[in-house]
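ARCHIVE CARD
SHELF: 3
SLOT: left
DATA:
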Amino acid sequence: MRQFYRYMLLFLVIAFLAVFLIGPVYTVVEVGLDWRLLGEVFSNYIYVEGLLNSFCIAAVTTLMVFAISLPLALLYDRYEFPGKNWCNLLMMLPMILPPFVGALGFQQILGHYGVINTLLASCGFEPVDFLGGRGRFWSVCFIEALHLYPILYLNLVTALGNLDPQLNEAARNLGASWWTRFRRITLPLMKPGIFAGGSIVLVWSFTELGTPLMFGFNRVTAVQIFNGIMELETNPVPYALVVVMLFFAAMMYLAGKFVLGRNAANSTVKGNAGSAARPPAGWRRFLPTGVFALVTLLAAMPHIALIFTAFSLRWYGTVWPEHFTLLNFENALSNKIVIPSIVNSLRYSVLAMLVAVATGVLISLAAVRWKLRGSSFADLLAMLPLAVPGIVVAFGFLGMSVKYDWAAEWFNPVENPLWLLAVAYAVRRLPYVVRSVSAGLEQTPEELENAARNYGAGPWRVLRKITLPLILANVIVGGLFAFSFSMLEVSDSLILAQKAEFYPITRAIYELSQILGSGPFIACAFGVWAMLFLAATLAAAGAILGRKIGSIFKL
């Protein structure tokens, strides 16, 4: 009887994911997988250019991320240096702000009369058009790389921590150079971490909507899909665009899996070999600290620019704002969409957190503790949001509300998107909960639970009194990630919130940024509040998980 109820719970979880994860994807594919529509996409040079630009953004951003993350991970793993204990927490700094919000502040640095061009003009050089032509492309790649490199860095640090240092020592004793050891030993054994982080970065940057939208880069597939929403009932081409994006995202993921993931099972685990990190001699021990500080400062540039913009009265053709003021914060509070958007985001995110935690805990228990048949399938479904582009899921929910009567009644983005956004947020953030709770269960021995059962405790009592208290920290971390990232979700918010009275925070920031004159300054003030909120959340999660926080971003 106990197993029957467990299987019933697992069935409900799988049904939930089938409806609200597979359902949106199926809706998009059913409509968009039309050869006439697909032919129209590939015969229109504007759509083809959008795809090529998306590919180029993904490739360049991923290369930038590797160039930043790999040296940092090697330094962290191989050396002891002052401030090392703070490094992983500092590496999370770029994630306290969605890149499209950071783009608001970055425009003050890269604009025609921004900080960099002001410095160039003072040195007698011509201004550079960073936000127009090809300069816009590189600006989008740069700001996305600054936001995404922590995902790869944390996975690489975890992968390096699982390698046996005795392999490198044996190769060194046999006369192998540093480059040979890195190329023949370290890099091949890091393939699981490279794939786990690199595939997320590649797909994320390929499907990113917010950053190109804020920079006015309209010849990108994600932005073309967003711009096509308003004429969705008369022009189904956006469905085909989403299908094409989903197909190429899946191909990129599978290509990475084929190239990097084939030998994942053969990775050597460190076990009890101990750490190989050693302090550099003399003044060199400060070099890793300097490198981390430099990268952290670079990654913090969008946040610093956002803060300065929020407090500035005028910032035009100068290195620093001419006057500082609190007027932007006052105007933000008095704007009619700001306070309601905060309340809306809290409602959506709390519901999303509750749904994600309940679903994630059940999946983790079924897979790790109960070991039910079908639990691995449920775990795979829960991880799909990391591989399926967020814009695909969001667009699919919109398509469901248009196509199905039951969805239009309960999940109508025009009348009231409360449950629509809550479920969409929960599905997108479910992987963080599952990985966090599963890690806690795997690290918690079953002896206490078995002892309680031997003394006559029932399954519910064991779960409530033993299991859940032991993994409470992991549940809290998963819930924190689900809540905080839901508060600042971009794709779902921009696509599914269509009335001002239902705008969440990110949609409100976007709408404020479009107001001529003081709009961007007010949006930056609003963004500062959001940044502080998410910073506190990530600091709490980092303090609880430490370097294991990288497991949150594993496929």
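SLOT: right
DATA:
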Amino acid sequence: MDETPGRDAVELRVHGISGVTAERILDHPIVVRVAGDAHAGFFRPRPGSGTAGGATGGVAVEAYRWGSLTAGAAVRTASMLLLLPFMLSNLAIWLRPPGRDRWGLLGALCRLLAGTLTATFVLAAVGVTLDLVGWQCVPYPGCRASRPYLAWLHTLPTGPRLALLSIVPLLALRVVWAIGTRSARTFEGFGPSSAPRRSGGRTESLTDADFWQDEQTTGWLRQLHVVLGVGTLNVALLAGISPGGVGAPGHGVLFGIAVGLLVVEVVLLALPVPASPARARRLLRPLWTVTAVVTVCCLGTATLTDPAPAGLGKLPGYEGAAAGVVATQGVLLVVLTVVTYTRQRAARDDERPFLRGLGTPIMAAAAVSVGAAFTATLVYRVADALDHGDIPDPIRPNPPVVGPLEPPVAYWWAALAGLAALLIGAAVTSATLLLSRRRRRRLAARIIERDYPDVPAQDTRRLRLVRETIARSRITEELGPVLIAFLVIASLGLATVAFDVIGIGPTQLAARLGGHGGAFAVLAAYVTDAGVWVISLLVICLMILGFRAYRSSQTRRVVAVLWDLGTFWPRTVHPFAPPCYAARAVPELAKRVTGLTARGPVVISGHSHGSVLAAATILQLPPSVLARVSLLTYGSPLQRTYARLYPAYLGPRTLRDLGGRIGWRWRNLWRDTDPIGGPIFPPGPEGAPPGVDVDIRLRDPRGLTIDPADTVPPPIEGHWPYHTQAAYQVAVRELTDRSC
């Protein structure tokens, strides 16, 4: 380890998203790791090879590279795309309005909505195996023709066939569980920091010592979701094999037990996570035992039962199950919207969050929409393959020799709603950007007039480029109406399931409204087909992106950008979401900073998303360490993004507390051309205390005229780099001197 004797002050740089190299962070070609491992490590320039770029005299520069936690193994990065709906559902609770979650209502609603995603995933597997293959395809010679891997199933009676195919959803559930836990081994060995607990709930404040430790919560939820998925399969299987319906003699008792077990699992999901691991084990052991017994009984009953002949319509009960889950999602989404909007209206004026407090239901709607797209694509593409390329519906059925092969009506409505959401969303986005263009240009023009009052005629073209760059950097603030529109569209899309409850699909509704000619119904059928293909193409594009991530490290870094933002928070809602990398990064940074402060002052220098990690680290440090710690942020989204989207955790009050903890030894560099970063403390009640200057605005570009010693004008630097400007070194020197 290179400790650089005689240079006790350290500038610790923390990079942003996309997994940059240590060489780029240090702006030095030769680096050596001084702590950490291949997943996340601390680097310094090799001794004798010179200093890091932008280094301040007398201050050693060290870099913390954490990008491999999300952009590391190709298999891990590619497989994470399958977990996107679960990641979005886990992210929803963190966008809640400020204030305590009274009675844990928001948490319970988010956990229940996450449970419906697991049920949706299992029902999609049931729809492919039990419904399309076992019930609708195998009985028909035209469907199983030239498919020897399906023909042998025809020799089995319907009951044993369905029991055998039930193993596939169980295996799929196990695979998703394995994907979600595979990379957790990277974060082992990093327990809570030594910071004292300040709040009663683990998820109430970033200052809690165990805030980033989600093992107990994830373990509890993981087992509940597994038994929920198994219970969903049991109910679907029993409904399918009951010759006289789900209440038939001999099956009614077992079906009632299976449904009752599902109700118990839902109730446990709604309840808070047990504080004691021993209490959690006492609750889960009998639940697992009963689930295993019921599952064995269901499989045995299916093997010994001779249900109604397969091929007659859809698998009994499956249509209602799919519609019931979608209806439940719609109800939960409406309740979640009402609760969050009510909570934000009760907040103080200086705590009113972005998007009118609807960030939680918007993200939940995104999770439901993506989950519906994944499951509908899976079912439709399998049905399409079994149909030899045809897409049947009630208006255009298959010939009798092939069979019906009809997915649930709820998926038809989901496809139509997906197409409508895409078209309306694109229209709203375009309108928002066009309507805000003049306002953004006026703001950019005022900035230009202030920064470049006297511009020579030959620099007019360059001036227009700078103005357009500043105007484009303000697009982020204009996307609020688009997200609100998405929530409305998604809610209306879920509301269409009401037609499914009474057995009416899009084409059937069009046929009733259009009269007896049938032209309107055929048009609706083609529009619905277009919706199926649109959502299928979107999912296929994600699969291609996952394949590219496996083959290309550059694409893997692009995928990692999404995961850097989506897996920052602990898993407290959905256990199948990718692991939280901050569970390692924050405690590791806190441990390293604590060790470095024993030898001298430390300036934590965070760029972009790295400034968020730096802020979270400081909130975990004990007072004895904070006396020698300063913070330098640049290109930081703390106020512009995180304080607005996550007001309960990184809102103005938390940022002011952060500044007070380090004695306001904090400098933030920002540029008007930066599309991500911005000032931390705007003027007003949300700003810093009087006499404290945190934000330092940098003019960008530094000039418009070509320097006599150069050949091109100064570049527009935007989001990177910052360390090349003199203001950076001045800030490091000032913060270091104040920390001594």
